[in-house]
């Protein structure tokens, strides 16, 4: 298993529960992952080194957690060496790696998404802006660590942002920009596993992107999430499969870029039906943590079936009817300049069945300290959102992390709905 965050801790935790898993390696892993796996230092940009390590240790399956190695073609290097790999090829990972690739695919496959213009120069972008009204949605084409999207309220702000984008604010990710129509509605995420042919849903979730309570302040990688997202009713999920996910997988296969792995669809539920905002080529972080908390199927079996093109031959994933909710504890200063090195004492946070996934932690001797922006993902299950939320915050309150903070309103929308 490759990766070092909370998503990878959740994956490692679930993989290790499988009777099919004799030994789990993680690279680079983290102190939480190390509880159930042997962590090794491997440079994932050095494909040869990864392939050699996997071969020398006779590893049966490689699971790639984050997007960067996927977009870098690590899955191709592993497959070329005959190694079963969970994660899409470089070409298929363009669904996350290039916004314009995905928009063009939507056009070819008639998938509902916001009207858009691709712009490869500043002049063209200023021109294209005239075809849209405020608020303006501007997206740098490539991977920009979740920071490539600007929503500008005025035309002047939009022009200013375009200047910056073409001026290299996002590096090479900004050499092409997509301008989109602004969509209104509720956002939700839908996850599916596919081997390129068979497609099976593996849950829904909603996350909280803003750093502050009441969804205020700057965007982050996600301050919390819960699953399921009841707003994605069974009927809407069927519509998402039919109108968005199935045509995507079919078209990718027909065009010689079969997609295998997990497909994460970021959706806007508009009054005209679900529209695709973006695809990710991996599980969401922290959405993965809540999905794994609910998953009752064997994750090794599912991932191996994806890797081997046998997904249609095994039972579809089963998720518990429970709610799962995760609260991100971040280091003070996140998302700008998180303070590193703060001491953490987890106390008896897991006593009531909660699970603390490590996202940015480090061991200094015996002491657990923070080493990143998002530090811990405190995750709990319950029969309702209200119960899952109460358990997660009880666990948060059992943790001593003086330099950390969290939002106190994760899942509040669902809790309010449950109150009626
Ligand atoms: P992305 O990085 O594509 O997930 O975009 C980040 C966030 O920007 C999304 O989660 C949405 O909240 C917002 N966003 C992106 N595209 C649109 C759009 N066309 N209309 C409204 N909001 C959008
Ligand atoms: N939580 C959003 C993401 O993983 O992209």
Structure in words:
Helix 1 packs parallel to helix 10, helix 6 crosses helix 9 and helix 7 packs antiparallel against helix 8. A hairpin with a 2-residue loop joins strand 20 and strand 21. Strands 10, 11, 14, 15, 16, 17, 19, 22 and 23 form a nine-stranded antiparallel beta sheet that branches. The model has no long low-confidence stretch (mean pLDDT 95). It contains 13 helices and 23 strands. The longest helix is centred in the middle third of the chain and has 21 residues. With 420 residues, the protein is of the alpha+beta class. The relative contact order is 0.13. It binds adenosine monophosphate (AMP) and glycine. Adenosine monophosphate binds next to strand 16.
Short description:
The protein is α+β, with helices and mostly antiparallel strands and 420 residues long.
Distance between the termini: 42 Å
Bound molecules: adenosine monophosphate, glycine
How much of the sequence is in beta strands?
A: 25-35%
| Shape field | globular
Helix segment count? 13
Please tally the β strands and state the result. 23
Helical content class: 25-40%
Largest sheet: 9 strands, antiparallel
Q: Which stretches are poorly predicted, pLDDT < 50 over at least 5 residues?
A: none
Gyration radius, in Å: 21 Å
SS content category: alpha+beta
Q: What's the overall average pLDDT, rounded? A: 95
Structure characteristics:
420 residues; alpha+beta; 9-stranded antiparallel beta sheet; 4-stranded antiparallel beta sheet; 13 helices; 23 strands; 30% helix; 27% strand; binds adenosine monophosphate; binds glycine
């Amino acid at each position: 298993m490759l990766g070092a965050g909370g998503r990878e801790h959740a994956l490692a935790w679930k993989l290790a529960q499988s009777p099919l898993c004799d030994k789990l390696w993680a690279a680079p892993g983290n102190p939480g992952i190390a509880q159930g796996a042997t962590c090794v230092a491997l440079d994932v940009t050095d494909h040869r080194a990864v392939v050699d390590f996997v071969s020398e240790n006779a590893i049966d399956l490689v699971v790639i957690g984050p997007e960067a190695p996927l977009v870098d073609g690590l899955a191709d290097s592993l497959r070329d060496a005959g190694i079963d790999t969970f994660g899409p090829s470089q070409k298929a990972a363009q669904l996350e790696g290039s916004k314009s690739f995905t928009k063009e695919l939507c056009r070819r496959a008639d998938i509902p998404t916001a009207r858009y213009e691709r712009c490869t120069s500043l002049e063209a972008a200023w021109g294209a802006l005239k075809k849209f009204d405020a608020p303006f949605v501007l997206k740098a084409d490539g991977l920009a660590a979740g920071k490539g999207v600007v929503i500008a309220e005025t035309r002047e702000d939009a022009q200013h942002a375009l200047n910056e984008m073409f001026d290299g604010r996002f590096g090479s990710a900004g050499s092409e920009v997509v301008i989109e129509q602004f969509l209104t509605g509720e956002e939700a995420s839908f996850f599916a596993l596919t081997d390129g042919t068979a497609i099976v849903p593996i849950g829904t979730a909603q996350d909280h992107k803003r750093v502050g309570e009441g969804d205020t302040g700057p965007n982050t990688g996600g301050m919390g999430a819960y699953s399921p997202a009841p707003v994605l009713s069974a009927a809407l999920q069927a519509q998402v499969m039919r109108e968005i996910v199935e045509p995507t997988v079919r078209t990718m296969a027909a065009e010689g870029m079969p997609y295998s792995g997990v497909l994460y669809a970021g959706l806007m539920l508009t009054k005209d039906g679900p529209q695709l905002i973006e695809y990710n080529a991996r599980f969401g972080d922290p959405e993965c943590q809540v999905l794994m908390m609910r998953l009752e199927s064997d994750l090794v079996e599912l991932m191996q079936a994806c890797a081997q093109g046998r997904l249609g031959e095994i039972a579809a994933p089963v998720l518990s009817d429970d709610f799962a909710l995760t609260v991100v504890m971040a280091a003070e200063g996140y998302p700008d300049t998180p303070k590193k090195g703060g001491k953490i004492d987890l106390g008896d946070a897991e006593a009531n069945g909660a699970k603390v996934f490590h996202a940015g932690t480090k061991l200094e001797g015996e002491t657990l300290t923070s080493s990143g922006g998002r530090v811990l993902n405190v995750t709990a299950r319950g029969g309702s959102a209200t119960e899952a939320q109460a358990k997660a915050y009880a666990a948060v309150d059992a943790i001593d992390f003086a330099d950390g903070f969290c939002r106190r309103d994760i899942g509040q929308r669902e809790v309010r709905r449950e109150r009626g």
